[in-house]
């Protein structure tokens, strides 16, 4: 456990908590967490997750803009339903990218866990995109991904990060409930 990991865990927890509350401040906090974890993952040779942090940085800027535009008059971020076909396409793209990145990192790097690292990174990008698009279903994918991340981080000896991801499962459950509740409230207001 390093000072870097401790700070990254604290900042990440705060960012996810703010995301679950649909607070716009989540985006700059999550951007800082990405930078911290990119460095940590470089140190422990989880290259797909290191690159993922850079891609998350891009997705965070995208989400920040999208959420700012998707606010209601009273300042609350709207929740948008995820159509089943879009969900299926996202999951298929995640699987395709997981295979391609896993193959590459397995054959051309000294990655510690190339297949698992690549799969979790790919599906995390799908979940991040869904979060940026304000889909409550993003939290369900985050729950699944975070369960596997806990195991991978325990295996790599990143105990504090494993604990963070275990806590993030709880935050994702909370986020899903809050976002579903907000979606029902918004549907009630529009009469749909």
UniProtKB/TrEMBL annotation:
GO MF term (any one): nicotinamide riboside transmembrane transporter activity
One Pfam entry name: NMN_transporter
Cellular component per GO, a single term: plasma membrane
Transmembrane feature ranges: 46-67, 139-156, 162-179
Presence of keyword tRNA processing: no
InterPro entries per record: NMN_transpt_PnuC (IPR006419)
Entry keyword Transmembrane: yes
Membrane topology: Multi-pass membrane protein
Compartments where located: Cell membrane
Keywords: Cell membrane, Membrane, Transmembrane, Transmembrane helix, Transport
Family classification: Belongs to the nicotinamide ribonucleoside (NR) uptake permease (TC 4.B.1) family.
Function: Required for nicotinamide riboside transport across the inner membrane.
Full protein name: Nicotinamide riboside transporter PnuC
Source organism phylogeny: Bacteria, Pseudomonadati, Pseudomonadota, Alphaproteobacteria, Sphingomonadales
């Amino acid at each position: 456990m390093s000072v870097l990991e401790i700070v990254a865990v604290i900042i990440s927890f705060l960012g996810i908590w703010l995301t679950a509350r649909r607070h716009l401040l989540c985006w700059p906090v999550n951007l800082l967490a990405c930078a911290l974890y990119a460095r940590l993952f470089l140190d422990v040779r989880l290259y797909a997750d290191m690159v993922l942090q850079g891609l998350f940085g891009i997705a965070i800027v995208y989400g920040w803009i999208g959420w700012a535009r998707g606010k209601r008059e009273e300042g609350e971020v709207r929740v948008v339903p995820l159509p089943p076909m879009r969900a299926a396409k996202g999951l298929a793209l995640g699987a395709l990218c997981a295979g391609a990145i896993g193959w590459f990192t397995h054959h051309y790097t000294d990655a510690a866990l190339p297949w698992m690292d690549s799969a979790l990174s790919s599906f995390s990008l799908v979940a991040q995109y869904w979060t940026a698009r304000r889909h409550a279903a993003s939290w369900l994918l985050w729950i699944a991904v975070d369960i596997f991340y806990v195991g991978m981080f325990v295996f790599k000896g990143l105990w504090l990060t494993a604990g963070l991801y275990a806590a993030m499962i709880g935050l994702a459950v909370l986020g899903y409930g809050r976002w579903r509740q907000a979606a029902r409230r918004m549907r009630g207001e529009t009469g749909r």
